[in-house]
Amino acid sequence: MGGQNNRFKPGDKVPNDGTYMEIGETGSMVETPEIIHKKAGQEFPTTANKDRVWMRKPKPLH
Fold first, then answer.
1. Where are the residues of the annotated region Disordered (predicted)?
2. Nearest-5° angle of CA 7, CA 5, CA 37?
């Protein structure tokens, strides 16, 4: 694992402009994840429940 944190809690600062989605704290996918678009320096909003965190949405493979 690299040193870069790829999971963010509500209130954390957004590191890079992009699209982020909710996942379970353990890294599991959730059935209906919230998907947000944020700019660097903004704060992550509250998740749908306390057991979720934000991660950068993977880019689709072409």
1. 1-62
2. 50
**pLDDT digit string (tens) for 35-44?**
999 999 999 9
Show the 3-state SS of the chain.
CCCCCCCECCCCECCCCEEEEEEECCCCCCCCCCEEEECCCCECCCCCCCCEEEEECCCCCC
Q: For residue 4, what pLDDT is reported?
A: 56
Q: What is the pLDDT of residue 15?
A: 96
Strand 35-38 with 18-24, pairing = antiparallel
